[in-house]
Every structure is written in C-alpha cells, then in structure tokens.
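Narrative of activities, Objective 1.

The group set out to show that a structural description can be obtained from nothing but a protein's sequence at a throughput compatible with the screening campaign. Below is one input-output pair from the validation batch, recorded exactly as produced.
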Amino acid sequence: MKLSEYLLSKAEARWYWWVVFVMTVFESVFLFIPPEVFMTPAIVANKKRAVPITLAAALGSIVGGIIAYAIGVWLFDSVGAWLIQQFASMDAITYLEQVRALVDKWGVLIIVATAFTPIPYKLLGICLGFLNYPIILFVAVSAIFRTGRFAIVGTLLYFFQERANNIVKKYFWPITIGAILAALVGIGIVAMV
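Output recorded for this entry:
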C-alpha cells in the first residue's frame, strides 16, 4: 500500500481530529510543517469531516498561540530565545527588536500577516508575549484570521474533494515537499527582515 493511501485510510478514523489538533498546537509552537498538511488527508478521505477538522486546526492554533505567547512571557531567555534562533538567522534580541519595530509601525496587521502566510506564527507569539502585547488582542485576531485560513482550505477541500483525492494520491510527495518548502520560504522571509 502506498504511503498516501495508508495516510488517507488512517485519516478517516474518528480520532484523527485529535491528530490535527495536537499537530497544529505543535506547529504553532515549534514545528514548521503547515497545519494544512494534517488537515488535507482527513477532508480528502471524507468531505463530511471538513467542519470538525477545520475546527480542530483552529482550536489547536489558538492553544498553540497562547503557549507561544506564554513562552515569551515566562521563558523567553531560555526556550523563547532558543526557538527564535532555530527559525531566524539572527540572535533573539535582534529579532525581538525588529518585531517590536514592525508591531509599532503596523500593529495588528503583523498578526494578520503571520496568520495567513508561511511567516512563522510561533515567533510572533513568543515576541508578543515578551513585549507584553495585549494577549486578548493577539488571541482574538489570531483566532479570526487563523480560523479563516483553515476555513478557506477546508471549504476548498470540501467542494473539490474528489479532485483533491486524486491529486493527493498521485502527487503526495511533491505536495508534501512543496508545503515544507513553503514553510521554509516563510522562515527565509523572517530571516531577511
């Protein structure tokens, strides 16, 4: 059995939404694999699961964002700085100062940009926690726009499920590698800023 077929068969399991939730939490804190990689197999396998899978990704993202923010508040000098240095090509303090300048200039739009693009959301959450940015505003904007991003993906997969199923089965590895490369491009963008 091909790996793609195996993953699609496992994605139909009732417990799979927990996988999406947990992996999206991890993505929002330290992974660089986009949550859509975890969402797609379940919705492609059974389009009736689009809503629960999308909600699992959204909730996981919110929980992960709160964890990243908490790392910035309480563990910036150890865990936060280490995570930033794993994803950015500069030291944590330099990165933090750049985020501070961007937040001062653009405000909420920075959160919107990281919610919708491959720019690492986790790094922003850590920095905003350290900068004591209002957590309610961070969580509210993140919830709206990260949920919107996942809802767009879920909706597209719902309406194009059969085509998506064929594409995933045929091009599993190129799609997976492409998603990882998109995440790396986001990290590269952050490193250049």
